[in-house]
Design brief:
Layout lengths: L7 H16 L3 H17 L1 H4 L3 E3 L14 H6 L3 E7 L7 E5 L6 E3 L5 E3 L1 H6 L3 E2 L6 E5 L2 E2 L5 E2 L5 H5 L11 E6 L19 E4 L3 E2 L3
Parallel strand pairs: 1-2, 1-7, 7-10, 10-11
Antiparallel strand pairs: 2-3, 3-6, 4-5, 8-9, 11-12
Bound molecules: ligand FFO and adenosine-5'-triphosphate.
The site of adenosine-5'-triphosphate has 13 residues, from helix 6.
Amino acid sequence: MMHSLHSAEDKRALRRELRRRRQSLSPREQRDAAHRLCHQLKRLPEIRRTRRISLYLPVMGEIDPTLLIPWLRKRGVAVYLPVLRPLSHNSLWFVAYHANTPMVKNRFGIAEPDTRFAAKHQRRLPAWALDTVILPLVGFDAQANRMGMGGGFYDRSLAFMRRPGPKPTLLGVAHACQQVNALPVEPWDIPLNAVVSDQHIVRPG
Ligand SMILES: Nc1nc2c(c(=O)[nH]1)N(C=O)[C@@H](CNc1ccc(C(=O)N[C@@H](CCC(=O)O)C(=O)O)cc1)CN2
Ligand SMILES: Nc1ncnc2c1ncn2[C@@H]1O[C@H](COP(=O)(O)OP(=O)(O)OP(=O)(O)O)[C@@H](O)[C@H]1O
């Protein structure tokens, strides 16, 4: 693998390679990874005390965090999904997700709760109102640095983390095969509290 990423071109190439890696996992490997991830997550103190958590519906080989939902429901935890904000460039809202939530496809083809419904029922929150955010990662390193899809969606939505005030726990999740030696840290990157894979938990520092 590459030792350093000096250009945007290198970063794009690495993102492409890591996306290819997770997409080449078999359905069986995906299923096993999802179960192992769920097991790792349930052990985390941050998850055991969460009341409002956002996760995501997996696409294109992303590790599946949704096996956690029944366990969260039993504990009375409110579950949210990211929704693209219509009038705010590349940032996210978080909308309550239930079995009967009306869903629509966003411009990337990812199912998300219908915001018209969410607005009416006041079930739409900015990230600061959550206590845990589960982020889908394309790549991560041993320092828990992250690489996402490249849209800056989570970084923009979490920019408030730099200011005083309430701060959710940020947990990146990924397949173990998405780990690399080192990722470049960009000025806008918001640090994670941990990265959780199907095989281990990585904390920064
Ligand atoms: N499951 C899931 N949901 C998520 C994210 C995610 O990474 N995974 N996001 C995390 O940010 C947000 C959506 N961000 C995304 C950013 C880029 C692409 C994407 O597929 N881009 C295409 C090319 C762009 C296009 O189609 O116009 C690509 O890279 O091939 C998808 C989602 C919110 N929801
Ligand atoms: N807080 C911010 N304000 C303005 N632009 C931002 C902010 N955060 C990130 N960006 C922009 O978003 C773009 C994508 O950033 P980057 O490549 O780090 O995405 P990513 O972290 O992989 O994606 P994501 O956050 O969606 O998982 C960059 O061009 C960056 O300038």
